[in-house]
Amino acid sequence: MSTDEVNAWVLPAREEEGHFGARSVAIKNGQRVYKQATISVFGSPSSGEIKKEELRLESFERKPGSNEFDFENPKSRWHCENEEIERLASFLAGTFNTAGRYRLIDAASASATILSLLDSGDLDPGALGETLAGHADLTSVVTALTASASGLNAVEAAVIARRRSVLANLKLKATEPRTTERDMQSALEGHTWIFGGQYIGIAHRRNLTMLDEYDIPLVEANGALHIVELKGPNIKDLIKKHRNHQVVGNDVHLAVGQLINYLKQLDQQGAAMEQAFRNEHGVEYDMSRLCGTVVIGHSRHVPDFARKQIDQTIRTFNSHLSRAQVLTYEDLLDRAEMALRFEEDSLDSA
């Protein structure tokens, strides 16, 4: 095949027809036959969105009794579109050298990254995770991975490992003397699973009423709200001796009183707020079954009493409450860890 000269040209766009232009190249200019290839681009004239690319291959014979080719009447014509062009290009590039089934993958995709690491034999899990995190098509890779039972188990195990890391950090913070309520709130942000699987997220705003702003307004699947009030973990007088028994300290009483006032305001404004959130924000909250939790203190910071004494005292106090409960950070995080352990056992037995 001669490579002395190749003729190519560009055709202008016809925007009113959704034709964004074309590129053509002469493949053969022979004595009797002329062959050309044309790639055309089509899309929406208003938005500029490209919707289709088309490769058209045509051959023309000379007009009878003339030296000119009959470009108005192709002798043969064949075309392909979009991914069909990619397949043809891969074939011409020698990609399909052996018999078999192939899958074309964008070289910049997460799938291609995985394949390149497999080919190199350097499939370090940490490096793989960091590399894939920046790919826009990572979701499709995860979807494909979780389509199989083994793949789903691997993803679930990775989630559990990540949550264990979060728990370890929270437990460490809760035992440090200088950790404040704000520190714990920041560390808990985005981890509603710690409070239990019945919660699907946090309310779209923390000030649901005119007077109050909540630390963590949890939302259940049925739209019911659960208000969490956080206090600091370092509460020395979490419980105290009173005559021959132990009772909760003043900090606990004040925190519960604060939570009950929140619930009272939500009760009073609930019906109106339900309608306002539905009409203005398109969210459905059920204000008829409100309850809440105070998370406060840690046994590590209460030197005069054992954890068992603290747990029993708070359990007795909770037994006289109807819509509120008190938990220590120790209890909250231990419950979350037991839930993770249950999930791990389920994976092991699957």
Low-confidence stretches: none
Tell me the structural class: alpha+beta
The number of helices is 9
How many structural domains?
A: 3
Q: H/E element string?
A: EEEEEHHHHHHEEEEEHEHEH
| Strand residue percentage | 15-25%
Q: Major sheet: order of its strands?
A: 1-2-3-4-5
What is the overall shape? elongated
Q: Residue share in helices?
A: 25-40%
Average pLDDT metric: 83
Number of strands: 12
Main sheet characteristics: 5 strands, antiparallel
Radius of gyration: 34 Å
- How many angstroms does the end-to-end distance come to? 62 Å
In brief, what are we looking at here?
This protein is of the alpha+beta class and about 350 residues long. It has helices at about 85-90, 110-120, 125-130, 140-145, 150-175, 180-190, 250-280, 305-320, 330-350; strands spanning about 10, 20-30, 35-45, 50-60, 75-80, 200, 215-220, 225-230, 240, 245-250, 285-295, 325. The mean pLDDT is about 85.
